[in-house]
Amino acid sequence: MPNHARENWKRTPAPVLRHGSIWYQLLFMTGAQHLHIDQDRLLEDLRTLAGFGKLTTGVARVAYSDADTEARAWLRERMRQAGLETAVDGVGNVFGRTPGGRRAIVIGSHTDSVPVGGWLDGALGVVYGLEIARSVMERGLQDWIAVEAVSFMDEEGTYLPCVGSLSFCGEISADGIAAGHSLDGEPLGDAIARCGYADNRPVHADPGRHLAYLEAHIEQGPRLEAAGLAIGVVTGIVGIRRFRIEVTGEADHAGTVPMAMRKDAGHAAVLCAAALYREMAEAAGDDSVWNIGSIRFEPGADNVVPARAVMVLEMRDLSADVLDRMESAMSACLAATADQTGRPCEATQTLDVAPTAMDPGLMRHLEESASASGIASMHMPSGAGHDAMIVARRLPAAMLFIPSIRGKSHSEAENTDDADILGGCQVLASAVERISAAAV
Ligand SMILES: [Zn+2]
Question: 396 pLDDT band (50/70/90 cuts)?
Fold first, then answer.
């Protein structure tokens, strides 16, 4: 990070202008920056939040646990102290909104974690929302900039992935809630009731009340760090297609049946996997990723020729066309392997998540805010799912990434430099001003 960029974050706050004044209005219309992030308070809130479910350096704060509900109660209290209008809805989403009638920019993420998670995954975007809303209140800008900070429930899927953002978007039914349960068998409805959320009113995304959704998040990968950049402007959240590939053979004694007479499903599967790695590279785009994450032989005995092989292939890209190409390459590999070995190879799709594009206008505001702060940014896809993927179906949405040290996430090793945490919040605040000014 260039030093001059860090200097920018430390600049003294602009003098307070009465929001009713014509000078204020003129300054606002020109897009001059007014929101001032309190750096110490931002870091302190992040560290306080990390105290709920604290492990050595990470957190254990799965959705609907005591640590999660206590963290949500703390967050609501911090919102109240800032003068925000707060609400907790019927699944446990926490909202804090600046008062006033303007359409609000929703800013947030999630405060639940995976069972052994890092302290910034989700928490970062929520505390950014809180800090920016607080800054709006302190500067008396609520007639010009409306912000609704949010912490969505269970993004990590302890009971039902993204149940909070699905509920916010009106995409979860009573049947959907009934289908959710934890690994140890507690139904989602029971967890909601246990935490005292069951009688709360729903809060829904409403394009009449909400202007946009902005989610800041740690990158959870190594690309920003490798590029030496502090801000990633997310172009979209990748689509995922997952296939279970089954190869059929016949079990035989591994010592008595000559090689030429075997119907070896394992051998065919390994040949197929090698062809897949080769051909997928040809069909893929620059940012595509794919993975064979598991392979299993049956019956799985050292002295038995495999009768069946099952492997799982997953492919991710931002473009449905590229995914189509990769899927065709997969089909061609399966057909070629079946021809070469005489073993039937069949693929069954087990997951199909469409790519989600981020809003180009919001992306431009994020990019310009970064460059106005002297911070170089890059466009990048998100290879992981986020609440923004759901909310983008109802509101224009965009995401900002900050670097993860060594790309580590979903572990206690997850961390980000304080300077990058502060810079990201200032860039997001600046984007909030630009988006608000453009909407006047
Ligand atoms: Zn997350």
Answer: very high
Q: Ligand 1 centroid vs 335 CA: distance in angstroms?
A: 39
312 C-alpha vs ligand 1 centroid, how far in Å? 25
Q: How far is the CA of 388 from the centre of ligand 1 (A)?
A: 10
Domain ranges of the chain: 3-237+355-438, 239-353
Mean pLDDT along residues 37-47: 97
Q: Is the dihedral of CA 219, 54, 73, 81 positive or negative?
A: negative
The whole model's pTM is what? Answer: 0.88
How many angstroms separate the alpha carbon of residue 169 from the centre of ligand 1? 18
**How far is ligand 1, taken at its centre, from the CA of residue 61, in Å?**
12
Instruction: Let me know: does 67 contact 59? Beta carbons within 8 Å.
Output: yes
* Residue in the structure block whose two tokens are 């190879």: 345
**How high is the mean pLDDT of the chain?**
93
Exposure of 103 by Cβ count < 10 A (0-12 exposed, 13-18 middle, 19+ buried)?
Answer: middle
Q: Which CATH superfamily is domain 3-237+355-438 in?
A: Zn peptidases (3.40.630.10)
Q: What fold, for 239-353?
A: Alpha-Beta Plaits (3.30.70)
pLDDT tens digits, residue range 289-311?
999 999 999 999 999 999 999 99
